[in-house]
Amino acid sequence: MLKAILIDLIHPRMLRDHALERLGEVEELVNTYGGIVVVKTWQKRFAPHPKTYIGTGKVRALCDETRTLGANLVIINGELKPRQTFEIGEALRKQKVEVWDRIDLILKIFAKHARTTEARLEIELASVRHMGPRIFGMGMELSRQAGGIGTVGIGETNIERMKRHLREKERSIKQKLEKYERGRGLQRAARRRANLKTVAIVGYTNAGKTTLLNALTGRREYAAEKLFATLDTRVGQLYLPGSGKLALVSDTIGFIKRLPPELLNAFASTLSEAVDADALIHLADGSDPHVFGHLHVVEEILQRLGVAGTPRLLVLNKADRVDAARRASVDEQLAEIPHIWVSAETKQGLEALVDHVERELA
After folding, report:
1. What b-and-e string marks burial along 152-178, b requiring 16 or more CB atoms within 10 Å of the CB?
2. How many helices and strands (H and E) does the chain possess?
3. pLDDT of residue 262
4. pLDDT tier at 191 (50, 70, 90 boundaries)?
5. Distance CA 333, CA 314 (A)
6. Given this model, what pLDDT does residue 114 score?
7. Cα separations (Å) of 81 from 53, 70, 133, 264?
8. What is the C-alpha to C-alpha distance for residues 58 and 6, in angstroms, rounded to an integer?
9. I need a labelling partner for 98 at 20 to 30 A (CA). Which of 14, 221, 281, 347 fits?
10. Taking 50 as the threshold, does the pLDDT of residue 76 lie above it?
11. Rounded mean pLDDT, 106-113
């Protein structure tokens, strides 16, 4: 069982509620992976410590905490540089404690939940890209084992070998993924020839995208109340009663705050369904107290994907879990943004959603 200590680096002026929210999301990620959190803490700094990210004093305190609590994992809620990962790892070596950053944790969850070969390849590609810069830290460790004044040492040789191995591995994975992308391209071309319109469901992780896909299309895809339960794109047929035609609906990988570029780039082929869609359903969890922050995150990522101009409708899910006061408050804050409420679980509001989608596609 993984017993984790979570640490976040926050600005000294950050509010306590904001700091707790950030740590709460990381704790949910740890639980999704299958671990438990024994301590949540933060370090206030205006900027990361260049050597240890969280500061040398905090690292020393970690050594005592991991020993006292029996923790075997330290997770930093940030993106560590190779040197920082190495230095923290060295300090915790005697306790045999692993050190992960935020990207490591997300990649571990992705790897655990991937079901198709394509998703596994995309995760492997992201892992290789994240691993590459860390060769610096590995090289430092290897160079201490051999070499001296005036010598090159075995560390440098191993660094070059590892770099070459990772470059070859990345090229091989890309070639395999290109085959899947060519297949997707052929499928999209066939859809255009058949005049089949496409709709992609996008949104923050755990908003209920797969449940909505199932409700709209009659599919029975796996859906769960956990982060990143779906990594593979699923496509189903939606009947449009007004025209008697069919449209294709797909769901996508969920978004999350501070989604690193290498993860977004690695899932380019999966996200291509959203990029090429005729319309988007931006699904949000209307019962989530942080829904407005999540809306902003998704909009930022849509900008990065280059689909900010694609027609889309904001859909607030889980209406069955929202009381009248909460709903009125959300409606007031979204007064200038067209939106509808649905419950993918109980199918409340789906007829109105289908009507809107049909009008948009027409």
Report:
1. eeebeebbeebeeebeebbeebeeebe
2. 13, 10
3. 67
4. confident
5. 13
6. 76
7. 8, 26, 8, 19
8. 12
9. 14
10. yes
11. 84
Could you tell me the sign of the dihedral formed by the alpha carbons of 123, 129, 135, 136, in that order? Answer: negative
Say how far apart CA 296 and CA 290 lie, in whole Å: 10
* Neighbour-count burial of 64, counting CB atoms closer than 10 A to its CB (0-12 exposed, 13-18 middle, 19+ buried): exposed
Residue that is written with structure tokens 């600005």 in the block: 11
Locate 352 and state its tokens.
């109105």
Maximum Cα interatomic distance, the chain, rounded to a whole number of Å = 80
> What is the Cα–Cα distance from 222 to 72, expressed in whole angstroms?
32
CB atoms within 10 A of CB 24: 14
How far are the Cα atoms of 135, 137, 154 from residue 148, in angstroms, in the given order?
A: 20, 18, 10
Percentage of the chain exceeding pLDDT 70: 88
Which residues are registered as beta bridge partners of 98?
A: 73
- Sheet with 3-10: list strands edge to edge: 36-44, 3-10, 73-76, 98-101
User: How confident is the model over 122-142, as pLDDT tens digits?
Assistant: 888 888 888 766 654 444 444
CA angle 152, 154, 158 (to 5 degrees): 115
Tell which wins on pLDDT, 303 or 145: 303
- Which tokens in the block code for residue 64? 């005592």
